[in-house]
Every structure is written in C-alpha cells, then in structure tokens.
Amino acid sequence: MLPLLISEQIREGDAYTIANEPISSVNLMERASRAFVGWFVNRFPDKNEPITFYCGTGNNGGDGLAIARILCDHHYNKLNVVIARFSEKSSDDFKANYERLKQTCVTIKELEKGTQIPEDNSRVIIDALLGSGLNKPLAGDYARLVNFINDLDKTVVAVDVPTGFFSDGEVPQNAIAIKAGLVITFQQPKINFLLPESAPYVDCWEAVNIGISEKFVHSLNSPYQFVEEKDIRQILKPRHHFSNKGTYGHVLLIAGQEKTMGAALLSSSAAAHAGAGLTTACIPESGLTALNSYLPEVMAITRRENTMPQIEWDKFSTIAVGPGLGKDGEALALLKTIIKNYKKPLVIDADALNLLAENKELLTMLPAGSILTPHMKEFDRLFGTHSNWWQRLQTSIVKAKELNLCIILKNDYTITATPAGKAYFNSTGNPAMASGGMGDVLTGIVAALLAQKYKPADACIMAVYIHGKAGDELALPNRMNVVLPGKLITQLPVTMAKLKA
Ligand SMILES: NC(=O)C1=CN([C@@H]2O[C@H](COP(=O)(O)OP(=O)(O)OC[C@H]3O[C@@H](n4cnc5c(N)ncnc54)[C@H](OP(=O)(O)O)[C@@H]3O)[C@@H](O)[C@H]2O)[C@H](O)CC1
Ligand SMILES: [K+]
Fold first, then answer.
1. From start to end of 318-451, where are the E strands?
2. Model pLDDT for residues 248-267, shown as the tens digit of each residue
3. Alpha helix (H) ranges present in 277-363?
4. How far, in Å, is the centroid of ligand 2 from the Cα of 159?
5. Tens digits of residue pLDDT in 13-37
6. CATH architecture type of domain 2-221
7. Which member of 121, 208, 283, 496 has the lowest number of beta carbons within 10 Å of its beta carbon?
8. Residue nearest to atom 43 of ligand 1 (CA)
9. In the CATH scheme, what is the homologous superfamily, with its name and number, of domain 229-500?
10. Which of 21, 130, 161 is the pocket-test mutation for ligand 1 (most atoms within 8 Å of CB)?
11. Distance 160 CA to ligand 2 centre (A)
12. pTM flag (> 0.95)
C-alpha cells in the first residue's frame, strides 16, 4: 500500500530525507524537478512549443525555476518564466535556483504586486506558484493571477498541486485555484485529488517518485492508504488442485422483487463468477424462471408473500442482502430475521442500507466484520448529511471503528474504511462503469470473496479493485463509452486469473 500523507507529514518526510539520506534540500528539489521533467517530456515532446512558467517565491516556485532550466538543457527553446513577487519572502532553494536560471537563455519576467499581468501567447503553462505550502484561500494578487491563467484556457500542467487547491482537509466551495489539465505530483497523490471536490481543478494526475524515505513514510502509520496492483497480488490466493466447490464457500444472496429481479441476477452471477463454490439466491417466487434460465449454476430459495423463507443459516459461509429487495414491511422483517439468526459477517447493500438508515438501532446489532456498501446518498442517509467529501471520509473512519464494520463508500477511488481505523482508496475503475447494476455486481464479488475465507477488510479491498480492474480491461483498450454490468461479470474470471499470474 502507498501511504497517503497530509501536507504537514509531507514536510516532515522532506526534512527526514534531507537529514538522514542525507541529501541537501536544494538537491532534493533538483531530484523532484528532474522527476517532473522525466514525465513532462513524454507528454509534451515538441521543443518548439512556447511554454510559460508562473513561479512563486517558495519551494514550489523553486521547482518551477529548476524545471525551466532542465527543460532548457533538453533544448526546449521557447521558455518564458514569470516570477510572481507577491511576497517579500523567498525560500533559500528558490534563490539558489533563481541564480542558476539566470545563467541560461530562458527569458525571466518579474511580476510585482498590483501590476498588470503581461500578455501570454504560450501553448502550455506550468503552474509553480504555490504547492503544498498553501495555508489559506487565495486572495488579492494570487487570486487575480490564477483567474487570469484560468481564463486563458490553455493546457496547464501544475507542479505538485494546482495553486490554491488544498492537498487535504475541507476544500472550500468555489475555491479560486488553478484548473490543471495535468498535475505532476511528488511521491504520492494528494488525498484531495482522490475526492470529487478535485474535479474542477485536477483533470488527471501522475505521481513521480522523488525518493522520500519509505521507512519514515511507513513509520507515520497514516490512516489513508492507496491500493495498488501489487497489494492485490499479495492477498489473492491461488485455487489449488484437489480443492472442490466446498473449499470456496457457499454464498446466499437475498435480493430481488418481481420488478427488480435483475439486481438479484446480477449479484448472484457476480458471486458465481468471482469464485464462490456454491451460490444460492433467495428471490421472489415470480423470479424463479428468470433465475433458472439466466443462471443455471445458481440454486434458489423462493420467497412468498407474507411468509418468511425457510433458511438453514449454518449452510452459508456468508449472506449478502439488499439488491432490489425493496423497503416494505416484509423486507424489514426479513432483514431483522437475518440479523437475529446469522452470526457471521453480512454484506449489506442498496435497499437493506436504506432499511438500516430508517431503523438505526439495527446498525449496532450487525455481526462483527459485516460490510456496508453505500454510495454517497445511502451513506448520508445512514450517518447524516455531509457538506463535503473530507467530512464523509472522516465519518467513514469513525463509524467503521465504532460499529466494528467495513464501509465501502462508492465513488471514483472508492474508499474502504475498516474497524482498524484505516481508509483504503481504490485505484481502478473508470466512468464507463457508471451504469445501473454495477453496485449489485460489487456486492456479489464481496460476498464471493468472504465465502472464500478472505478477511472482511481484504475482501472489500480486493473486490473493489477487481471490479474496477475488470471495467478498465474492458473499457480502456476498446475505448468503450459504457461497460454494462453483465459484460463486466464475464470478465471477472479473466481479471482474477491475470492478477494471480
Ligand atoms: N517532498 C516533496 O513533496 C517536495 C516538495 N517540494 C516542493 O515544495 C513545495 C512546498 O513548498 P513550500 O515552500 O513549503 O510552500 P509553497 O511554495 O507551496 O508556498 C510558499 C509560501 O507561500 C505562502 N502562502 C501559503 N498560502 C498562501 C496564500 N493563500 N496566499 C499567499 N501566500 C501563501 C506560505 O508562506 P507564509 O509565510 O505566507 O505562510 C508558503 O510557505 C511542494 O509543493 C513542492 O513543489 C520540494 O521541491 C522537494 C520535495
Ligand atoms: K503549483
């Protein structure tokens, strides 16, 4: 896992690396700037393209000056630097890089407080005004310059963080900040890049390694973690010779109503494709023909009106409840019966989450290690309204701990909060997956992995990753606009096999 740090810890990581590698601070800046350039030259190979750098006088600005010099060494020949002298202070590494840049043929302009901003005819803009040192919203000259740059409507590449955008903590609504087409960020994505508030400011980001001490970063034991493919490869177990369907557990999905049988079919199919040894669906009687024809692999327990279905609780390794279940009195009675009789972790999704939201006392009665899979609206119904995602992130951590549950908060970079107080950000998935029924598929995968004896937190992290990865494998190479849930399900065995290879 890649630990994600808040800005204060990023500064500590810098200081530790400088003192213990050891490396001088200006050489760390040089390393960061070279890492930036390494990525930049691949994306912007045209050396005749006019590029303007807007640099502040702190270390973000120092990076900007170093990057301009290094690009000049690479024979980029239309480089202009504008230094925003809005503060009396300038950092030592800014000063050192200013002296170095003066030795090159890069044009340097100084922009004083309150003066007119010069015309800009560049094609590409590098934003190195402010980075992770931002400590208040932009105002005055900074705000004026940032609005000017945004109005130019050019391709903007931000160094480390778009100027004015807070790397962590609550992002003020309608904040004035650079709208970057690309952010080349140092060492780790900043936590707020992974939350929806970043959408207007960060079109895409790339994290480049600048050699901050990994030992130190891990010692901070950050609650925020970024899940990468290597982490999933480590957890995923191979299927062995001489194993049989009993080895891989029995999933029971309690889902569907007459008009929402699709949800039951999708979640059951996903469970079977994600490797559950046996899958049973508890569905309304009217859905039996659909189940038998669509999924001959899946067994059925049928539900009749006003009758509680007969369930042999001990037979099932895990139970998932909710997709298409409805929220009527019968659904509530069924949910209560499940909670009363079943003592292993449950997976709770969709309508079952809304029933929990309306009957909050049930939340504290769920078996330890149970998994909730809310999207934003379901999350707020359960835990109260939130005005931003940073708050939601904090609540997910607090509630997962307090209730001894895992919470999968669905979004781009879906967050899994665990009872151990961690929040894992997923790194797979794409907008082609934004389609009805995708959540039902995820529920089926989570249940299948629980049945295969993965610990609840691992089952969540893996399921979310595999779900997104299957979507990426379908959508990205084929440039698909939409990936339908049924298609994604058939990709699951392929994706899982690749991850085990
Ligand atoms: N490990 C790394 O990631 C490395 C990062 N590097 C680069 O360093 C910056 C962070 O540099 P820093 O000097 O700490 O901060 P900034 O350049 O972002 O800001 C400079 C000063 O600006 C002031 N400030 C903050 N907010 C505002 C504002 N809204 N308006 C005006 N001025 C503001 C603040 O100073 P004060 O004294 O006024 O509080 C900032 O200190 C990081 O982003 C990377 O680009 C290193 O190069 C290598 C390692
Ligand atoms: K910046």
1. 318-321, 346-348, 371-372, 406-409, 415-417, 423-425
2. 999 999 999 999 999 999 99
3. 288-294, 329-341, 350-358
4. 4
5. 999 999 999 999 999 999 999 999 9
6. 3-Layer(aba) Sandwich (3.40)
7. 121
8. 131
9. Ribokinase (3.40.1190.20)
10. 130
11. 6
12. yes
